[in-house]
Structure formats: C-alpha cells, structure tokens
C-alpha cells in the first residue's frame, strides 16, 4: 500500500479506541447508548411516516425512498448500533459508507428527509470517536447530502440558500462533534488516571504489607536472638555443668538446677512477651537500673565470674523512651553473651552512664580480646541495626590480649 493510501486509510477508517472513551460511568454510558437507539428509532419512524403521507416525496418515488430508509435501518441494527457501543471499527466503517451513500440518494430523491441529518451527524461522531476521522466523515456526509439539492436547484438564489443551509449544518455538526470528541478524550484520560491511581494504591498497599511483614519478622528474629536463644544456651551450659557436678558436689548441682529453672521461667515469660509484642519481662514493673542489676547477678551465678555493676556516673534517673530502654538492655545482654562465649574473662564491669542527654551502657571484660576489623559478629551487627532504629550507636573497642569494651548509646531526652 502506498503512503498516500495509508494516510487516507488512517483518516477514513475508524480505529478501535481512537482518542475516545466512555464519557460516563458504565451505567451512564449504557443509558446513553440506549437513548441513541431510541432516538434513532423514533426519528426513522417519523421519516417513514412522512414518506407514506406524501409530504416529502411524490408517490412514484416512495418505493425507492422507503428502500433507502430500510437500508439505513438495517445498517444501524447490524453495524451502527454495535459501533456506537464501541469496539467495532469494521462495522463502523460499513455503517459510515452506507450513511453517506444513503444521504446522497435522499438528497436527490427526497430532500425533505434531510432532517435526518440531525440524527446522522451525532452518529458519525459516536461511531468513530476520534477528531480527524470524525471531521473527514462529517464533511463527506455534508457534501453527499448537499449534492442532490444543489444540482436540483433551478434558480441561483435557491442554490445559494441550499449551500448556506449545508454550510451552517456542517459547521454546527463539526462544533458538536469536536466537543463530543473532546469529552470522550478527556474521559479516557481521566479513566487512565483513575486506573493508574488504583494500581498505585494497590502497589503501595502491597508494599506496606510486605514492609510490615518484614519488620515483624526482623523484630521476632531480634527478640529470639536476644532473649530465647541466649536463655536456651544458658540452660544447655548449666545442665551440662549440673550433670558433671551431680556425683561430686550435689549442692552445687542443685544450685545449677535452680538457675536452669529460673532461666527457663524467664524464657517462657519472654516467649509470651515476644509473641504479644510486650516490653521485655526484665523491664516489666522495673527500672532499667534494676533490670541491669538482675541481669548482672544472674550472669554471675551462671558463669561464676566477678561482675560489678556501676551506676555511680549516672546523674539522676535518665528520661528514656521504652524503646531506648529496651535497646540498652538488649545491648547489655548481647555483650554479656559474647563474654560468656568468647572472652575467657575473669571479671566483667557493667556500667550505666549519662553524658548530657545521651545514656549509655558499657560492658567491659578482661578477656582475650580480638581485632574488631577482622571479625564480623552477627549478634553485634543485629544490635547495631536495632540501636540505629532509635538513633543510637554501638562502639566496640578491643585488641588481642587487652579485653573488650562494648558501648551502646541512645540519644535520651
């Protein structure tokens, strides 16, 4: 197909969804389409009645005129009506060709029926639903319907009158059609924006749910590591120690069993708190200082190490949020767990201090130490993430043979 033919086809052939859309809701659009059908039937019936009454044509021409009207009605039923509803470009093309030819014949046989243009022009725009194609078929329809009256005019004045009426009718149709096309195009754009908004809201809701699930998963993982896993590790160690002491020192074995029972009860309470997202059991009804003192006391009983708790540098009771207290407590627990597992220490100092608004917990041991730049501790990395959530920071100072000091700071108030 040549370039000229392709351009002509692009202008004359209606495209599915060409710059158009439904200007109303689905229900409103259906009502509009039904209204178009009803008006078409009513106007067509009026035209048939006019022909049969002999008002618009001579009796000898009634047969051909009625045949043209019948073809128009059949075309509308089979092609025009479905095309008005949308999504039928081939039927739209067939109906447009029939309309142009039929009105060319009516202009010659019965010019008095050209009032049907009142119906035909809107049909053109509803069928094509596009500006360029609508203008092209509107002009073709106006020319076809004007040829008969102009060629049949006897006096020049009558010819000018027919032309004037045709131009006025064409201008009105173009204005109406362009407005209809504008409304349809704006409606399509609004529909696209609404659909994009709906998809965006759905994506945001999905992302928010996923973020919430991930955050809860991270919370549970951190709580399990900081409480339950450490408690179970202590139970295993104490059970092994109790088994070894059972024959040689029953009293010491009973003491270990007592510690096991205490840790197990605390772990059970912590498990319930984790599931219910409550504050840690150690802070339930206690201050942070009291919770740290109990933590140090039990750690000393479990390990046999000398543990000193120092709160002398604390200037008054720090004003901390609950999440900041939890972070400091978890930091002390993680540091003591690392002392138990890796330090080989003989003494530990747990210090709670305040400098300005900042509150910090320091856990220092005299163990073997390590090179922080060469060792990655997953527990400390998890602690850093938790501390960062409250705007705090974690410092680890250590060297081989020089012990380790872990410091957790929170902003305070």
Automatic annotation (TrEMBL):
Membrane-spanning parts: 33-53, 65-86, 92-120, 132-155, 167-184
UniProt entry keywords in alphabetical sequence: Coiled coil, Kinase, Membrane, Transferase, Transmembrane, Transmembrane helix, Two-component regulatory system
InterPro entries: HATPase_C_sf (IPR036890), HATPase_dom (IPR003594), Sensor_HK_TwoCompSys (IPR050482), Sig_transdc_His_kin_sub3_dim/P (IPR011712), Sig_transdc_His_kinase_ChrS (IPR017205)
Pfam families from the UniProt entry: HATPase_c (PF02518), HisKA_3 (PF07730)
Entries under CDD domains matching the protein: HATPase_UhpB-NarQ-NarX-like
Molecular-function GO term, any one: protein dimerization activity
Signal transduction histidine kinase subgroup 3 dimerisation and phosphoacceptor domain location: 216-283
Coiled-coil region list: 190-217
GO cellular component: membrane
Gene3D superfamilies for the chain: 1.20.5.1930, Histidine kinase-like ATPase, C-terminal domain
Protein name from the UniProt record: Signal transduction histidine kinase
Species, as recorded: Geodermatophilus telluris
